[in-house]
Specification:
By secondary structure, the protein is an alpha/beta fold. It contains 15 helices and 22 strands. The protein is globular, with a radius of gyration of 23 Å. Bound molecules: NADPH dihydro-nicotinamide-adenine-dinucleotide phosphate (NDP).
Length: 485
């Protein structure tokens, strides 16, 4: 990269531009702890300009034929795929995740998001209801909302950014979006791809900056009709407070503390392989990671020794090395937050079975590396089991009965996802009914079909994304009732 290119710019009305204030934030490379670029510290004035560009673009975009919109979405997907290596390297550098993960998951999924909604919009239909005996027919018009705000977190940067933007655009809305200021690079690079794909100017505007200023300005802007947000529960609560008096539509995908329930009758080898992944993929920084492991008593000791042996063998290393299974955590403050949970473990009567320490990677001594950590806890009520750590840390404990396992799975404020390992069909159905989570995986983890409703219960959020749910969120239904004689 040239030094000029390390300055990320806002993407407003199809142009790349500096923030009006000319204030900048440092962008860190988590793998070596060094500043490698600058990010706009955008203010309300930048958001205002983005909203104005969207307002100008909306009449044209919302009436563009569905075929034309779809074609542009698919071209954006092609553009992302054509730059797979380049975008994956940028994502890995910005976030600290292993390049192998960015190449196999993050960037392909970003392309899939555009491809999926590019196709989905051509099949999106609304209902008609014939009022028999009243000589009347009702039909539903589904119109784009107007200008919408999309705010995304740092853990799966382009993956989650596009998961919001693609359905919003496909449905005919104009978007003002903000990626996390911790990982803005691939969102910045997306602007050029959108221009090359022929997305009209002003339809997508990307404003970089801090959550409390830029993000807040998006949420509170009166012309922004809906906000789709993925991030922490505390931030989600704040956004809900801001948006509620303005009656904005909200989709909130928030934190998780997901149970991984392992029964003795499961396919043990598959479970073990998958549990290593569901615990530590992306350094444990996925809202869907199974961070609380509950194991049936009869296989607890065997699982404990097998799992710990597998975890100890995971290589922590520079994200660009193919052998690295874990890269760096996203930032220094986040590393310190995760470490503070580990340091507090003994005070909670918990035992660290492996990991728990910072890792020094030769030549990258200032990077934010941490050993994958397994902690045995005595109670589901301890802080380690109740608070979201969002790092390479899992807890484990045993259970005796199905009832006990279910109760512990549900005894938490979050309700995003759960994983169940069993070959008992009746138990599968009982748990599927009783688990208080938006997603239940049985004998698998993070297998995603983009048509399915995605989201959480309880403090994990409000609303669902994916498939028709996303297209319904980004449209306003209007009932038309015609009586005829
Ligand atoms: P945050 O809540 O800190 O931030 C998310 C986004 O919101 C960022 O772009 C942030 O900007 C912005 N933001 C912060 N404050 C405000 C505000 N007042 N108004 C508007 N926007 C604001 O989450 P993290 O980035 O730390 O992400 C980790 C969290 O995301 C975890 O809790 C995780 O569970 C959750 N998550 C949930 C998922 C789900 O689908 N349910 C999926 C992935 C993650 P900035 O970065 O500049 O502060």
């Amino acid at each position: 990269m040239t030094s000029k290119e390390t300055y990320i710019q806002n993407f407003i009305n199809g142009n790349f531009q500096n923030p009006k204030s000319d204030e900048w934030i440092d962008n860190f490379n988590p793998a070596n702890g060094e500043v490698y670029g600058k990010i706009p510290n955008s203010s309300k004035a930048d958001v205002e300009e983005a909203v104005n560009a969207s307002a100008k673009a909306f009449p044209g975009w919302s009436t563009t034929t569905v075929e034309e919109r779809s074609k542009i979405m698919l071209k954006i997907a092609d553009g992302i795929e054509a730059k797979l290596q380049f975008l994956a390297e940028a994502e890995s550098k910005d976030n600290g995740k292993p390049i192998s993960l960015a190449l196999s998951v993050d960037i392909p999924r970003a392309a899939s998001n555009f491809r999926f909604f590019g196709h989905a919009i051509t099949q999106f239909a609304s209902e008609a209801h014939e009022s028999v005996g009243h000589n009347a027919v009702n039909f539903t018009l589904r119109k784009p909302l107007g200008i919408v705000g999309c705010i995304s977190p740092w853990n799966l940067p382009l993956y989650l950014f596009t998961w919001k933007i693609a359905p919003a655009l496909a449905a005919g809305n104009c978007v003002v979006a903000k990626p996390s200021e911790v990982t803005p690079m691939t969102a910045y690079l997306l602007g050029e791809i959108c221009n090359q794909a022929g997305l009209p100017k002003g339809v997508l505007n990307i404003v970089h900056g801090l959550g409390q200023t830029t993000g807040q300005a998006i949420v509170e802007h009166p012309q922004i009709k809906a906000v789709s947000f993925t991030g922490g529960t505390a931030t989600g609560e704040h956004i809900a407070r801001t948006a509620a008096p303005m009656f904005k539509k909200l989709s909130l995908e928030l934190g998780g503390k997901n149970p991984n329930l392992i029964f003795a009758d499961c396919d043990y080898d598959k479970m073990l392989d998958t549990t290593v992944r569901s615990s530590f993929a992306n350094q444990g920084q996925i809202c869907l990671c199974g961070s609380r492991i509950f194991v049936e008593e009869s296989i607890y000791e065997k699982f404990k020794s097998d799992f710990v042996a597998r975890v100890k063998a995971l290589k922590v290393g520079h994200p660009s090395e193919k052998e690295s299974k874990l890269g760096a955590l996203v930032s220094k403050p986040h590393l310190e937050k995760v470490l503070s949970f580990i340091e507090d473990a003994p005070a909670q009567g918990a035992t660290i079975l492996c990991g728990g320490k910072k890792v020094t990677v030769p030549s990258f001594e200032n990077g934010y590396y941490l050993e994958p950590t397994v902690i045995e806890v005595k109670s589901n009520q301890c802080k380690l089991n109740q608070e979201e750590i969002f790092g390479p840390v899992v807890t484990m404990m045993s259970f005796k009965t199905e009832e006990e396992a279910l109760a512990m799975a549900n005894e938490v404020r979050y309700g995003l996802s759960a994983t169940l390992w069993t070959n008992n069909l009746n138990r599968t159905m009982r748990f599927s009914n009783e688990l208080q989570t938006g997603i239940v995986w049985v004998n698998t983890w993070m297998m995603r079909d983009l048509r399915t409703p995605f989201g959480g219960m309880k403090d994990s959020g409000v609303g669902r994304e994916g498939g028709w749910e996303a297209l319904r969120f980004f449209t306003e239904p209007k009932n038309v009732c015609i009586q005829y004689s």
